[in-house]
Amino acid sequence: MKRFLLCLLSITLAFTLFLTGCTACSGCSGDSTLYFSNSFTGQWGGSNTNPTEYYEKLTYDVSYTDNYQNGLIKKGSALQNLLNCDFTGDYTTILEVGGANLLSERANLSNLPETITDREVYKYTTTLNITATIDGKEYNDQNVTECYFFANDISFNPIYSHTLSINTYVMLSPSSQFATTRKAYEYETFYNTNNYTIIKQALELDENGLTGNVLGTSVSTNEYEFRTLIDNNQLIFALRNFQSLPNQFTVLGVVSPAYNQSKNISVLQQALYDYNTELTYNSKTSDYVIPIKRINFAVASDTYTGIAQYLCLQQAEVTDVNGNNPIKNHVLPVEYAFPISTSGTFSCLGAIVCNLKSVTIN
Length: 362
Hints:
The protein has about 350 residues and is mostly beta strands. It contains two helices and 18 strands.
C-alpha cells in the first residue's frame, strides 16, 4: 500500500506542532534578544506598560477550501475522492493576563531567571475541533494547547507549554482505497534559565477515547539564551506583536516538539485590504469592514522548501457599518489558513480556514 497521510490536525504550526518550510532569508539568527512592538499590548493600558488583568476569548468557524488566496491550492488527483469529504469545526482561543496565580501546577516546575511571582503572566489556551465526513463516516479530531509566558518587557519568554492532540491519519492505496488509524500524543515543554526540556508521550486510544495508558515516552533537553525564543503554542499571539515588513522576510525563533529543538520562522507581510464580516463583539452582532494585514510564515530553511501558512490581522480600530459597537485595535486574528498536505512530499491538498465569528474582551 502506498502510504499517503492526511492528518486532519497534525499539519499546522500554531495548532499542532508541524512546521513546513520555505526558502531561507539572509542574516537569520535565533541568538538575539527578541523585541516586540507594543501595537497590541499598548492598546490595553494606553502606554508601554502591560495591564494587571485582561481577558479575551475568540471563537472561529472552521471550513475547508481547495484554493486559499491562490496560495494554498489543491494539486493532483490522487486524493480527489477523499478530499471531496466535508470538513466542519470550531476553534477557540482564550488569552488571560494576570499574576502567578494563573500558573498551573506543572508550569510552576519551570526554573527561570526572572522571579515569576513578581511578574505578569500570560496564559494562552486554544482548542481546535475538526469533524471530517469521509465516505459517510465521521472522524472527530481535537487539539488542545496551553502556554504560559512573560510580558512584553521580557520578550514574551515562554515558561511552560502543553499540547494534547487526537488525530485521524488516512492512508490511501494506488487504487484510491483508504484506511484510517487514530493516534494521540501529549507534549510538554519546560523552560529553564539556560535550557528547555521537551517531554513527548504517545497515548493509547480505544473506541471510547483515551484509556489513560502511555505507550511511549521520550525526553530531550536543549540549551538556549533567555529571551531569544518563543514557544510554538504562543506563535499566533506573538505574530500579533511582530513587526512584519512588505517584501522582506523577518525571522522569529520558535521551539517545536515536532523537531525537539527551535526553528527559525520567516514572516512576510503579503497584503493590506479590507475584510468584510459579520462579527459578534461582546454579545452584539454587527457587520464590520476591518482593515487587515495578511502575512505568511513558514520555517526558514536552506535545505528544502515547503508550504506557508497565512494569518490576517486587524490593523485599526473599527466600528460596525452603522458607526456603532467600536472595537479597539487589539490586532485581532480575523482569519487563519493552514495547509493540508501529504506525508513526505508536502504536496498541498487545499487548506483549513478559521474565520473569526465572536469576540469577548473584558
